[in-house]
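Lab notebook, bench 4. The sequencing result for the construct came back, and we need a structural model before the next group meeting so we can plan mutations. Quick request posted to the team channel:

Model the 3D structure of this chain.
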Amino acid sequence: MAKIFPFPALKANSPLLAFLLFAGPVLPVANAQEVDAPRPEIPAPPVTDSEPDSQNSAQTLPTEPAITPQADDVEIQKLLSKLANAVTSLEYRGFATFEHAGVMESVEVVHGIRSGEPVERIRFLTGAPREMVSRGQDAQCRRDGSPLSRAGLWSSVGLQNVQGNYQFVLRGEERIADRDAVVLEARPRDVHRFGMVVSVDRETGLPLKSLLVAPSGRLLERFQFVELDLAPIADSDLQPHSDSARESEGVGHCGSLVSRWQLNWVPNGFKAVAARELVDGEMQVFSDGLSAFTVFVQKLGPNMNYRGRAVRGATVAYMDQFEINNEHYTVTVVGEIPDNTALLVAKSVKTRQ
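Done. Here's the predicted structure in token form:
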């Protein structure tokens, strides 16, 4: 699930690890990337791989055979295209539940299109009052908003790359928010990404429910609409409804960047899709078409020493530091990937020759 991570607030030499995980909605931090949750209605089977899974604190979910052993590739292709188009082009509002890190949240999601750009307002209905309005965010750099934002990656990187990194299987049908849905499972082909089970609205292509699953088959997050309205969105519905709402403007600040840093290793299929300069460094976004992570490299000030790892639900933030020509830098990898994968990515950051 995409989280609320407002990039414009980054400051030089700030404790980025703490900022990324705690500057958004205040939620409990888990000690591992699994949620001890009830067995999902359609569990995702574990991936067979010789490499051990770095998460080990939650009970493994039982598995079931797919309803369609040999899914129709043409139907899957149409379903993926319909899903990606729906997320970026339809207007809707609804109420949903979002379960992660052992916490069940209720949220209001309002998604409109203005001048061809998405405008989204997210309001949390449980816990401390929280609201976020994002406008015109580039989908490749966007790391704030609702869990629906992830599907937009599918069209930016390409369906061919997505299907090269995940095996897609049709798992039947179910009813979500009083709407008929087709259940689609995305099984990762290695242990460096999470799997997903998505219930796609048959009529519109919107994802009505999504389960994020660790390589071992453990449930990490669950997002599910309980009510959905597809009527056109009024301008007033996209305005902040509280004085404490955060607004994020994304106007042309994210694109290509000739970076001084390179990654000597990324998981197979992940490609650099966007970059942004920061006051004291830069960030690069990598995606495989379904999952994404961001790499921050920033200069450290005197007597700064930032190292550590934190996990919230499916999101990990790993921070380390290194020295080049007597200058100190911090590297932070944050994204919805296994924590061991984040560590490997951080250790691979090098300066370009």
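The chain has five helices and 18 strands.
Will bring this to the meeting.
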